[in-house]
Amino acid sequence: xxxxxxxxxxxxxxxxxxxxxxxxxxxxxxxxxxxxxxxxxxxxxxxxxxxxxxxxxxxxxxxxxxxxxxxxxxxxxxxxxxxxxxxxxxxxxxxxxxxxxxxxxxxxxxxxxxxxxxxxxxxxxxxxxxxxxxxxxxxxxxxxxxxxxxxxxxxxxxxxxxxxxxxxxxxxxxxxxxxxxxxxx
Length: 185
What we know:
Blueprint: E1 2-7, H1 12-25, E2 31-34, E3 37-44, E4 47-54, E5 59-64, H2 74-78, E6 83-86, H3 98-109, E7 113-114, E8 117-120, E9 128-131, E10 141-145, E11 150-157, E12 160-170
Parallel strand pairs: 3-7, 8-12
Antiparallel strand pairs: 1-5, 1-6, 2-5, 3-4, 8-9, 10-11, 11-12
């Protein structure tokens, strides 16, 4: 089962550790609590630095191998300092479903750290993500910034829609078929 917690922004790692400790102390096994991060390239003092930034500021995820949601200690987690709320559906359940669960699984599959992807983009044509963790998200692209090597994707989590910017590597799209035929000149 996957759960999503809204936590105080800039206190995500602290909340993640406290929730992990609570689950471990309560005897829970086979769980993982993570604060999703993304790899970004930033220019600092004329040098490019690769670093990690929050993927979804203010949110942490829990994966638990339990069978029954009712056995999960929501009441204790709500009391953890920094935890604001646990994502809940209209039917009163907390276990992520549908697109929310797929999104959590995607983050989990990449160990909570989304690395840079490789992209082919030509102005006037659809962006194509050729490799990396963003492959398959071509349809979610809402902005391309080739100069800063970033793309912005739209993600939904429950009722929350987020625009998330990712650093990508734009691949050289020139090939022999793109070059003018010099034999005609």
